[in-house]
Write a structure and sequence with these properties.
The complex is a heterodimer of chains A (about 425) and B (about 220).
Chain A lengths: L1 H13 L1 H41 L2 E5 L22 E2 L1 H11 L3 E16 L2 E10 L4 H4 L3 E6 L8 E4 L1 H7 L6 E7 L5 E14 L9 E5 H8 L4 E2 L1 E6 L7 H14 L3 E5 H4 L1 H39 L1 H9 L4 H37 L1 E2 L3 H7 L3 E2 L5 H18 L1 H9 L2 H6 L2
Parallel strand pairs in A: 4-9, 6-8
Antiparallel strand pairs in A: 1-11, 1-12, 2-10, 3-4, 3-7, 3-11, 5-8, 6-9, 7-8, 13-14
Helix pairs in contact in A: 1-11, 2-9, 2-11, 2-13, 9-11, 9-13, 9-14, 11-13, 11-14
Chain B lengths: L3 E12 L2 E13 L4 E5 L6 H8 L7 E6 L2 E2 L5 H11 E4 L11 H6 L9 H14 L15 H13 L5 E5 L7 H18 L2 E6 L10 E6 L2 E2 L4
Parallel strand pairs in B: 3-8, 3-9, 6-7, 7-8
Antiparallel strand pairs in B: 1-2, 1-4, 4-5, 9-10
Helix pairs in contact in B: 4-5, 5-6
Classes of the chains: A alpha+beta (about 425), B alpha/beta (about 220).
The complex binds adenosine-5'-triphosphate and magnesium ion (MG).
């Protein structure tokens, strides 16, 4: 084994330029893989985490038949006018929280499309009716840029920037909301603007909705003590939501209550979609990178086998079994990929650390959306880095398997005749 | 027991659509301690013959018996082990491993013996001393002259104490004086250690060293001399 290692190492040193070239390509591949992983992870964190903390929540509970009058498919994004509503939502949230220790907080939400008028101007908006008392616990990322949050019973309204601009609103202004009640009657409510809201971490987003007191929306719909959805938050913000959703759904089935819990992944719509597409595309690019690097290693190994055909014959004549020849070339590939992986992790860690400090700037509005701001800050994840490097080493050794097998299968007499 | 025995051995090579008969019904026996030359013009089948005796190739017909074992009955690994234990090889173009020092080259065949490191090192050093190259042990092959390289190759062939050493034109790449010296060395080792040598040559001048000459022509053995 010692002499085998020596032999492999010295053969790599002997072909110094080729070794460095292949190892650099491999290292570059590893570095790019690490960076692309860190980039997608950072993007997911930058957008998905604030979205969970500011609008989606961790779990959502609807009536199973919630959208039956609206096409059947439950949407978190569309207004819930015409949805079948959950009766006694506050009490239900309280019961769920009491029985499920993994849940930390919950709120009842009822979101509808309405016409908002201020003076001569009016526009269609989405009103998100939430319980002001529990808002902070469920939506920690919802903040105000201007003004303040509204208090319970105040009939307050938090507008977004677009609405504030269109209707010329500032804190303290009065507006009127017009909507249709459940029975179709036209209803109205007077609301007082208390501020402009945003989701911290997603300042680039122009939210198309306004927060109002749940009570005001219930009044507009004439649906007292009802909500379209319950938004629940887990104690452990990073924990998988699926087990809790399963537990809740089991409970609903047992009780015979026609309710269904969804995870944030199922209901994340636009936020998750972007992340999934990014992951998919970067996955394909990763695959291309891996194939290119593996092809490079295969090529280097093939050249090594061709050049040393007579040496293989000699070694076989001296009594090396086929397996020994196989090992010889695999060890060489292993050393080569260890070198490449070392270069790659160093380079990758350096790149991620640098970008983590200065940020990857967003060059377009679209990028600002997917970065959740003006720049993205990837985080150095060492175990992730090492697992990429380890995977690359395995792939490269496998890539050398073909040439190594070819070398092992050479017939000694033929190999010795090779010039 | 003969060191090596061929019984009516033939070897055909497929060359495109035609067949080349490199050996046609060769029978011979080489006894322990012999110093045998295989002589013949280019293409007469010398290398083919040595490859068969060296278990590097299989005959198309006939039987090859090395150190009492029928080669046909052995699989690839067993043949490798047989070569490792019983046979040493010396090649026309030395075939040293370029990245290993002279000493490491000599030590290389002991790799397949599983000896402790110190022991294999010591044996390699002794073998290298035996061919008079103790002082260039750390040199790489490209730092050695042709004659020195062939001496390293001889040390490498003998380090495992084989019963049979096969040398395919060991002097063909050397000037005649160096070639003479190499053959003298082989003969010397043959006498001192009793190792059987079979070497091939197409150079009539070096045949004088051989105890016995097998003459090959067109794949057939001529009457022994
Ligand atoms: N692998 C092979 N495929 C096809 N033909 C071969 C092969 N090996 C040898 N031959 C042919 O077999 C015949 C004998 O070849 P061999 O190499 O044994 O001769 P040789 O006596 O060693 O010649 P030289 O003195 O040139 O080395 C030649 O005609 C050669 O062309
Ligand atoms: Mg020949």
């Amino acid at each position: 084994m010692r002499l085998l290692l020596t032999l492999a190492a010295r053969n790599l040193i002997r072909r110094r330029r080729r070794t460095l070239l292949t190892a650099s390509a491999l290292g570059f591949g590893v570095a790019i893989l690490c960076l692309s992983r860190a980039w997608t992870a950072a993007m997911a964190t930058a957008v998905v985490e604030p979205a969970k903390d500011g609008t989606i929540g961790h779990l959502q509970v609807y009536r199973t038949d919630a959208a039956d009058d609206e096409g059947g498919e439950i949407s978190f994004v569309q207004p819930h006018n015409g949805y079948r509503l959950i009766a006694g939502p506050r009490a239900l949230v309280a019961r769920l929280l009491a029985d499920e220790p993994r849940l930390a907080a919950g709120l009842a939400r009822l979101s509808i499309g309405a016409l908002l008028s201020a003076g001569d101007e009016s526009m269609e908006v989405l009103l998100l009716g939430v319980d002001p008392a529990t808002r902070a616990a469920v939506y920690p990322a919802v903040g105000v840029i201007e003004g303040r949050h509204f208090a319970p019973g105040e009939n307050g309204l938090l507008v977004n920037r677009g609405v504030a601009r269109r209707l010329g609103l500032k804190p303290g202004d009065d507006v009127v909301a017009l909507a249709n009640a459940v029975d179709g009657r036209l209803t109205g409510a007077k609301l007082k603007v208390t501020g402009t809201w945003t989701v911290r971490g997603l300042e680039a987003y122009e939210w198309g909705a306004c927060f109002v007191d749940l009570a005001a929306v219930q009044e507009l719909l004439d649906a007292p003590d009802q909500a379209s959805v319950l938004i629940l938050r887990q104690r452990d913000a990073r924990a998988d939501a699926a087990p809790v959703a399963r537990a809740l759904n089991d409970r609903f089935r047992r009780e015979g209550s026609k309710l269904r819990a969804f995870t944030w992944e199922e209901m994340g719509g636009p936020f998750i979609g972007g992340m999934l597409v990014t992951r998919f595309i970067s996955g394909i690019l990763d695959l291309v990178m891996v194939v290119i690097v593996a092809a490079g290693v295969t090529n280097t190994a093939l050249m090594s086998v061709f050049e040393r055909t007579r040496e293989i014959g000699t070694v076989r004549a001296m009594g090396a079994r086929r397996g020994r020849v196989l090992a010889l070339f695999l060890v060489e590939a292993l050393l080569l990929s260890l070198l490449g992986a070392a270069i790659g992790t160093g380079l990758g860690a350096g790149l991620i650390a640098t970008f983590g400090r200065v940020g990857i700037p967003a060059f377009s509005e679209a990028q600002r959306y997917s970065y959740g701001g003006d720049a993205l800050y990837p985080v150095l994840d060492l175990p992730g880095l090492f697992s990429v490097a380890g995977l690359m080493i395995v792939i490269c050794v496998l890539a050398a398997l073909g040439p190594a097998l070819m070398a092992a299968r050479l017939r000694p007499a033929e190999a010795l005749r090779h010039v | 027991m003969s060191s090596a025995r061929l019984e009516d051995v033939s070897k055909d090579y497929a060359l495109g659509r035609t067949q080349v008969s490199a050996l046609r019904g060769v029978s011979l026996a080489v006894e322990p301690g012999e110093f045998v030359a295989v002589a013949g013009p280019s293409g007469s089948g010398k290398s083919t013959l040595l490859n068969l005796v060296g278990c590097l190739d299989h005959p198309s017909a006939g039987r090859v018996v090395v150190d009492g074992r029928d080669v046909a009955a052995l699989d690839d690994d067993a043949l490798s082990d047989l070569r490792a234990q019983k046979i040493g090889f010396i090649f026309q173009s030395f075939n040293l491993i370029p990245v290993l020092s002279a000493l490491e080259n000599v030590e290389f065949p002991l790799l397949f013996r599983g000896l402790p490191r110190a022991q294999s090192r010591a044996r390699a050093e002794r073998a290298l001393d035996e061919v008079g190259l103790g002082d260039v042990a750390r040199h790489r092959p490209d730092e050695l002259s042709g004659g020195q390289r062939q001496r390293v190759a001889i040390a490498r062939a003998l380090v495992t104490a084989p019963v049979l050493v096969l040398a395919d034109e060991p002097t063909a790449n050397l000037d005649s004086k160096t070639g003479e010296a190499i053959l003298d060395l082989m003969l010397d080792l043959n006498r001192k250690q009793g190792t059987t040598f079979i070497f091939s040559t197409h150079d009539p001048k070096v045949l004088v060293h051989a105890q016995r000459v097998l003459r090959l022509a067109d794949g057939r053995l001529e009457a022994a001399s």
